[in-house]
Design brief:
Layout: E1 2-6, H1 23-35, E2 42-43, E3 52-59, H2 69-82, E4 87-92, E5 107-116, E6 129-131, H3 138-146, E7 150-153, E8 169-182, E9 185-194, H4 201-213, H5 221-228, E10 243-249
Parallel strand pairs: 3-10, 5-6
Antiparallel strand pairs: 1-3, 1-4, 2-3, 5-9, 5-10, 7-8, 8-9
């Protein structure tokens, strides 16, 4: 299994697609060259176009010739050389037979960065949402976020078409807001940890919390959004650039 980081700016998402550049496509192309055979990968969580990852997990069957710990080091070095500079292999390890990066995951963590104010970010411009205007009311956003923790039907917080015929119940262990500074630029980080996520779920959560932070809604409005079970009841979908798939726990 590989731990993969990538800057998603130039990719049409993780999952392979014909005629467009994807992270999975680049990884599988590099794996094919190194192993001299087609390799099909499985990721812990597919990311959309423009979304980044620091700790994406990618599993695939053991390939002949890459069966020892020293082989893993050789594999990592080869993949780093064959993939673009905006993809990095942060680690490689063996797992039990039949292990799936997706189905064996117990917990996934996403982090979303927001830079609020009249001055646009320079160093964080590819990795944060610049929310123009006055500062956000962070205490109000924290109160709103508390309503999302636990097991709920998150149908209001996902792309409507993706929810058809599927369960939209999910469990969130944590939704917290952290104030951080990156390269001298102040960011508000929304940290979301849960067992699994719906399509666009984190970005819609962030867009909804920003509605509260901007003073357009009260924190208790989030309870109404959950109860509505309707995408149109929630806030806007936050831009992809601010989202990073942070970590997976097994």
């Amino acid at each position: 299994m590989l731990t993969v980081a990538y800057d998603g700016t130039g990719y049409a998402g993780f999952a392979r697609q014909p005629e467009v550049q994807t992270v999975q496509g680049k990884l599988e192309e590099a794996l094919r060259i190194v192993t001299r055979e087609p390799v099909t990968t499985v990721c812990a969580g597919r990311t959309d176009a423009g979304v980044h990852a620091l700790g994406q997990q990618v599993s695939f069957p053991v390939v002949e010739g890459f069966e020892t710990e020293s082989d893993l080091g050789r594999l990592k070095r080869s993949l780093d050389a064959l993939t673009p500079d905006d993809i990095a292999i942060r680690g490689a390890r063996f797992e039990r037979t039949g292990f799936s990066a997706r189905f064996d995951a117990k917990e996934r963590e996403y982090r979303y960065r927001i830079v609020a104010g009249s001055t646009p970010p320079v160093f964080m411009r590819r990795f944060a949402w610049w929310h123009k205007g006055p500062s956000l009311d962070i205490p109000a956003m924290r109160l709103a976020a508390d309503h999302l923790v636990g097991e709920h039907d998150f149908r209001s917080f996902c792309m409507a078409a993706s929810a058809e015929g599927r369960t939209t119940w999910r469990y969130l262990d944590r939704v917290e807001l952290l104030e951080e500074s990156h390269l001298g630029e102040d960011c508000l980080v929304v940290r979301v940890i849960g067992n699994a996520f719906l399509h666009n779920m984190v970005r819609i959560i962030v867009g909804t919390l920003v509605e509260v932070g901007a003073g357009r809604r009260e924190p208790s409005w989030v309870v109404e959004v959950l109860g509505a079970r309707d995408r149109s009841a929630a806030g806007p979908t936050a831009p992809a650039c601010g989202l990073t798939f942070w970590e997976v726990r097994y």
